[in-house]
Specification:
The chain has 131 residues and is of the alpha+beta class. The chain contains 5 helices and 3 strands; from the N terminus they run αβββαααα. Helix content is 43%, strand content 21%. The protein has a 3-stranded antiparallel beta sheet. The chain starts with a helix and ends in a 6-residue tail after the last helix.
């Protein structure tokens, strides 16, 4: 029913918790299933001067897929440029998690929505909001 990747991420999630004084915070929830996610980011610059996600952490109240997805996404974006992080798609996450019941697809994309909100929050704070 669930892939081994989902079980692995759920049993040993990475990047759990909050970041003190984050540069951006994204919060999403799904009223149907009750899942709630917070993604916290710290932004830095790489050697090329690009803005990167220097640190990312999450807090998720949700099912096995929601927690696994949050862990996987934070591992995927840590150290990436904001531009590259914004290019990650829902299909990328679903593919990365592997087999799951179709009814759980919505759980597998909530963290991506939270990440996008965290990046937007950062841009808003820096006056870089995209209209």
């Amino acid at each position: 029913m669930y892939s081994e990747k989902i079980f692995k991420e759920f049993r040993h999630p990475k990047n759990i918790g909050e970041i003190k004084n984050p540069d951006g915070v994204g919060k999403v929830g799904n009223p149907v299933c009750g899942d709630v996610m917070h993604i916290y980011i710290k932004v830095g610059k790489n050697k090329k001067g690009e803005e990167i996600i220097k640190n990312v952490r999450f807090r998720t109240f949700g099912c096995i897929v929601a927690i696994a997805n949050s862990s996987l996404l934070t591992k995927m974006v840590k150290g990436k440029s904001l531009k590259d992080a914004e290019k990650i798609t829902k299909k990328d996450l679903i593919k990365g998690l592997g087999k799951m019941p179709p009814i759980k697809y919505h759980c597998s994309i909530l963290a991506l929505d939270a990440l996008r909100k965290a990046i937007q929050d950062y841009k808003n704070k820096k006056g870089k909001a995209v209209k």
